[in-house]
Amino acid sequence: MLITIPDVLSQEEVVQFRKELDNTNWVDGKVTAGHQSAQVKDNMQLPESNPVAIDLGRKILRALEINPLFVSAALPAKIFPPLFNRYDGGHSFGNHVDNSIRRVPATAELVRTDLSVTLFLSSPEEYDGGELIIDDTYGAHSVKLPAGHLVLYPSSSLHRVLPVTRGSRVSSFFWLQSMVRRDAQRNLLLSLDVAIQQVAQDLPGHASLLEFTSVYHNLLREWAEV
Ligand code: NI
């Protein structure tokens, strides 16, 4: 399931991010691509060791830690340090699937990629094309979000970025290992959590809230790997 998380970064933060990203050195995006994806990847990227990338990546992780919808939807166990890419002048990324396991740079830590994340840092008016197209069992979904919003999608999905024909599309992208590996189980937990929050708001103190909350935590206990 595709899940959109709005307003991960404020508009002021996006402006600050873009100022720093526009003034640093970009390299060919093939540096982090696996063999299959290198053949279809045509964009620019910041090296993992770039200090701007490291600093902004940490800021994104801090924003995500306090975002209740992101935490509830992703149930993150490990998050790969965010990377940054830029598409302009006809750049695109053809159909590919993300690598299943990623090693965190300069560490022995492995991250199984359960969910892929794209955080948009350009507003849709700044560029033409550049839609992220994600295939799932219901067909192809086109994603182009306001700056500061992100999309979460299963890393098992085939996906692509259409050519950018005007302007620049800047984004952060990364992967995470979820405490709950299976998409269907994670989505059930999200639905239940959203329903509990709604009941808590509309019928505060309702006797069934305790029972529903207990079911949520006991399902999470059944399904989570930590
Ligand atoms: Ni990808």
Give an account of the 3D structure.
- The protein is an alpha+beta fold.
- It has 2 domains: 3-178, Sandwich (Jelly Rolls), CATH 2.60.120.620; 183-223, DNA Excision Repair, Uvrb, Chain A.
- 33% of the residues lie in helices and 31% in strands.
- It has 6 helices and 17 strands.
- It has helices at residues 11-22, 35-38, 51-65, 68-74, 183-202, 208-223; strands spanning 3-5, 27-28, 41-42, 44-45, 76-79, 83-88, 92-96, 101-103, 110-112, 115-120, 128-129, 132-136, 139-143, 150-154, 159-161, 164-166, 168-178.
- The strands form 4 sheets. Strands 1, 2, 4, 5, 6, 10, 14 and 17 form an 8-stranded antiparallel sheet that branches. A 5-stranded antiparallel sheet has the order 3-7-15-12-13.
- Helix 5 (183-202) packs antiparallel against helix 6 (208-223).
- The mean pLDDT is 96.
- Nickel (II) ion is lined by residues 96, 98, 159.
